[in-house]
């Protein structure tokens, strides 16, 4: 039904507009007595083999919703009904900011991909906390944090620490995002020295607030092998708890979408099917060098159950979806979980 009826209708509307329209519909659905129970019955899949004990947390299954979809924690309860075992909110910044100018999200249907240059648009961390206080679902929530656009890199640490301090009681883990291509200068924080300092301070603060909340690093798929080796060293020397690979890419290689269309769209991070192979390569490389003690969450290019299985076999512990959720619909979560359970039985 989704791919035959709903997706064609959704794709007639600007991507960002339909995103928030669907948010309104889901919020309304959540207010109708009994409706979300029906949704849970349709889309959730439970099996003992799906449970994972990672980061000191119990995940009911390995499938989560990636950051960027529910930036402001508006639909934690509603989205959890679709079978996700964890939802990552954000990227959140200390102060509210509008993000980049519109239009800033574009579909590439020929490539089953999206390009976005949202620019950390969010209502600020304090606004998200109000919603997190009122959520009812026990779903695991990760807090993806970043710096405000107007904050210079030399003061970026203050923004990250502020987010950790105020979010700490309301999320289950933190994700340090220094890999978005849509905030000017942000990726410079991926360089070895500033990243080591940033992670050490964030981890130190999280340890100072009981109970400790794990800290993960989210990286870009555009890193070189040397940079990936630096990331491995940084994780080990700073005591970072795990890694999320990957964010969106600035590469446009191998796309079916005409160059004239891509030129008209302009800058932004690419997500979806074009990242499938590169994402798997990075997961495999990181697992070989990190060993088994560092959790890896795979995101990027997971469009089918076989894509998810490929990431898990390459060494990922958990997977997250975003673009696949948009192209394939909510049934993808259940399909992935059923495939994982069948593989393990």
Topology:
Blueprint lengths: L1 H9 L4 H16 L4 H9 L8 E3 L2 E3 L3 E3 L10 H5 L5 E7 L12 E4 L4 E4 L8 H9 L6 E6 L10 H12 L5 E5 L14 H17 L6 E5 L5 H14 L3 E4 L13 H7 L3 E4 L3 H15 L5 E4 L5 H10 L3 E4 L1 H6 L2 H14 L1
Parallel strand pairs: 3-4, 3-13, 4-7, 7-8, 8-9, 9-10, 10-12, 12-13
Antiparallel strand pairs: 1-2, 5-6, 6-11
Helix pairs in contact: 6-7, 7-8, 8-10, 10-11, 11-13
Describe this protein's structure.
The chain has one domain (2-344): TIM Barrel (Alpha-Beta Barrel). It has 13 helices and 13 strands. The chain has helices at residues 2-10, 15-30, 35-43, 76-80, 125-133, 156-167, 192-208, 225-238, 259-265, 276-290, 305-314, 323-328, 331-344, and strands at 52-54, 57-59, 63-65, 86-92, 105-108, 113-116, 140-145, 173-177, 215-219, 242-245, 269-272, 296-299, 318-321. The strands form 3 sheets. Strands 3-4-7-8-9-10-12-13 form an 8-stranded parallel β-barrel, surrounded by 5 helices. Helix 10 (276-290) packs parallel to helix 11 (305-314) and helix 11 (305-314) crosses helix 13. It is globular. Belongs to the dihydroorotate dehydrogenase family. Type 2 subfamily.
Distance between the termini: 29 Å
Structural class: alpha/beta
**How many domains, in number, for the residues?**
1
Mean pLDDT: 96
CATH architecture: Alpha-Beta Barrel
Side-by-side strand order of the widest sheet: 3-4-7-8-9-10-12-13
**Helical residue percent band:** 40-55%
Number of helical segments with 4 or more residues: 13
Please state the CA-atom Rg, rounded to the nearest Å. Answer: 19 Å
The helix-strand sequence is: HHHEEEHEEEHEHEHEHEHEHEHEHH
CATH superfamily: Aldolase class I
Number of strands: 13
Strand content: 15-25%
């Amino acid at each position: 039904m989704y791919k035959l009826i709903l997706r064609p209708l959704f794709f007639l509307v600007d991507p960002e507009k339909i995103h928030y329209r669907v948010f309104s519909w889901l919020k309304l659905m959540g207010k109708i007595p009994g409706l979300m129970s029906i949704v849970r019955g349709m889309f959730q899949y439970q099996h003992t083999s799906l449970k994972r004990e990672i980061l000191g947390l119990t995940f009911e299954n390995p499938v989560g919703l990636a950051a960027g979809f529910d930036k402001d924690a508006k639909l934690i309860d509603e989205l959890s009904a679709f079978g996700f075992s964890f939802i990552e909110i954000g990227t959140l910044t200390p102060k509210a900011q509008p993000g980049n100018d519109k239009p800033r999200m574009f579909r590439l249907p020929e490539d089953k991909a999206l390009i976005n240059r949202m620019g950390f648009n969010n209502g600020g961390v304090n606004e998200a906390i109000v919603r997190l206080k009122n959520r009812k679902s026990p779903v695991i929530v990760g807090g993806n944090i970043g710096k405000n656009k107007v904050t210079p890199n030399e003061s970026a640490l203050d923004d990250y620490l502020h987010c950790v301090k105020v979010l700490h009681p309301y999320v289950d883990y933190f994700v340090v995002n220094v890999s978005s291509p849509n905030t000017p200068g942000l990726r410079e924080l991926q360089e070895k020295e500033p990243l080591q300092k940033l992670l050490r301070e964030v981890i130190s603060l999280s340890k100072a607030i009981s109970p400790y909340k794990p800290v993960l690093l989210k990286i870009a798929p555009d890193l070189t092998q040397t940079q990936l080796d630096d990331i491995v060293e940084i994780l080990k020397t700073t005591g970072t708890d795990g890694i999320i690979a990957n964010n969106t890419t600035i590469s446009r290689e191998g796309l079916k979408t005409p160059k004239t269309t891509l030129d008209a769209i302009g800058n932004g991070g690419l997500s979806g099917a074009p990242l499938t192979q590169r994402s798997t390569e990075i997961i495999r490389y990181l697992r070989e060098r990190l060993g088994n003690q560092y959790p890896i969450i795979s995101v990027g290019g997971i469009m089918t159950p076989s894509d998810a299985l490929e990431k898990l076999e390459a060494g990922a512990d958990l997977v997250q979806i975003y673009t696949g959720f948009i192209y394939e619909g909510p049934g993808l979560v259940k399909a992935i979980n059923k495939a994982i359970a069948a593989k393990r039985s």
